[in-house]
Amino acid sequence: MTELHALSATELAPLIKGKKVSPVELIETILSRINQLDGEVNSYITVLPELALEKARHAESQIMNGVYEGPLHGIPVGIKDNYETKGIRTTVGSGILSDYIPHTTATTVKKLSCAGGIMTGKLNMHEFGGGLTNTNPVYGHSRNPWNIDYSPGGSSGGSAAALAAGLATLATGTDTFGSIRVPAAMCGIYGLKPTYGLVSTNGVLPLAWSLDHAGPMARSVSDVALMLNVMAGYDAEDPGSIKTRATDYTHNLSKGIKGLKVGVPSFFLQGLDPEVEQLFQQALLKLEELGAMVKEISIPQLEMSSFSNYVITTGEAATYHYEKLQQIPEQYASDVRTFFTAGVLTHTPQYVRAQQVRRSLTEAIKKEFEDVDMMVAPTIPITTPKFQDDWIAQNLAITKKCMPFTSPANVTGTPSLSVPMGRCSKGLPVGMQFIGNHQTEKLLLQAGEAWEQTDPLTNTLEK
C-alpha cells in the first residue's frame, strides 16, 4: 500500500471508516514527517502535536464506537496562519502579531473541525498575504519540496509546500491576487479560488476585504471537492457571504469534458516563458483529445485587471494597516511595506476608477460565458523562480509578472482552479487554471478531475 502520508483524503476515508487505518497512526505519521523534513521545507509556523494527537485519539474512539462523521474524519489538515484559531497563536506571517492569541475561531476552521478534520498546525505564509513567493524574514522562507532552492509560491506557500512534501493531507489557503493558485502551480498541487462569498472569510484576517477569498488546497481534485463540501455555505457573520443551494461537489466528478466549450483568452497567450508556452500548447491539445472544443477568444478588458486588483488591494490593505504603517513601518517586511505603502498614496478617484474597471471586466467576462462553458489559461506566465539574494526586488517583480494572470478571477469574483500542467526542464511544476462563471465550481472540478487522470506531472520537458 502507498505510504500513509502520500494517500489522499479520498483514499484514506474508506480505510479509516473501515478501521483499517487508525487516525492516531495517520497523525503520528504526519507529525513524524514534519519533525524529519520541515526543518528544510519550513511549511509550518506553529506545529500542534499534542492537540493533534488528542483529537486523533478522540476520532479513533468515536469510529471504534460506530460514530463516523464523514470523509474528513481523522484527516490531517494544515491551516494557513491567517485563519484565527481560538487559543492558538495566529501570526499572519508577521512578527507584529507573533504573540496574537485569538479568542475566536474562523468559521471555516470550525466547519472542518466539526467534520472530523484534525488540525496539525498553522502554516507559513508571506507576511499579511502581501506577496507571491513566501519569503519571510521573521519565520523563515518556506521552500519548494521539489527543490528547496526554489520558491513554493505565496502567499499560501506553506500550505502548498506541506501538501507537496506529505506534511499535511489537506490544507486551507486564501487568494486575493493569486495566493492559492500561484503556490499550487509552483508546487504541483490543486488549489481552488472559489466564487467570491461561497466560502466564509469570517475569522480570516484580511488583506483586501472586497477581494479576499478562502479556499481548499490538496493533492487531488477529489480532495478539493471533499473540502469544498464542508467549507462552502452561507455565513451570517461574513458580510460578503452569498446564499446558495447546498451542492455535493463530489457527485458525478468523473463526468468528463466531452463537448465542453473551452475559451482561451488571447490575453493569456502573451508574455509567456517559452517552457510555459510549450506546456500550455501541449495541454490544449490534450484537452481536445479529452473531448473539449477549444477556441481562442478576445476579452480586451483583461488588460486593465492588474490596475484594478493592484489599486484595490493596496488601498484596502493600507486602510487596514494604516495606523501601524505610520507607527511601526520598520516592523513590516520591506517588500510588504513597499506594497502596502503604495495604497497609502492611492487617491479616492483611483480607487473608484479601479472599481469601475472591475465592473466593466465582470460584465465582459459574463458575456463571454454565454458562448463558452469555461476558460483556460496558464496559472502564471513564468516557471518557478529560484530564490535570489535580493529577494525584495524579486518579490515585487514576480507580483508584477503574475498579477495579470491571477487578478481577473479575483477582480470578477469568478472561480478558478489551478491544476498541474507538467514540469519544466528543471523538473519543477508548472500550473494551468480553469476559470468558470460564478458558482460553476462543480464544472471546474469535473474538468480538473478529467485532467488529473492524464497524470500531468509525468510530462517533463527535456533540457
Automatic annotation (TrEMBL):
<dbReference type="InterPro" id="IPR036928">
    <property type="entry name" value="AS_sf"/>
</dbReference>
<feature type="domain" description="Amidase">
    <location>
        <begin position="25"/>
        <end position="445"/>
    </location>
</feature>
<dbReference type="InterPro" id="IPR000120">
    <property type="entry name" value="Amidase"/>
</dbReference>
<comment type="similarity">
    <text>Belongs to the amidase family.</text>
</comment>
<protein>
    <submittedName>
        <fullName>Aspartyl-tRNA(Asn) amidotransferase subunit A</fullName>
    </submittedName>
</protein>
<dbReference type="GO" id="GO:0016740">
    <property type="term" value="F:transferase activity"/>
</dbReference>
<dbReference type="InterPro" id="IPR023631">
    <property type="entry name" value="Amidase_dom"/>
</dbReference>
<dbReference type="Pfam" id="PF01425">
    <property type="entry name" value="Amidase"/>
</dbReference>
<keyword id="KW-0808">Transferase</keyword>
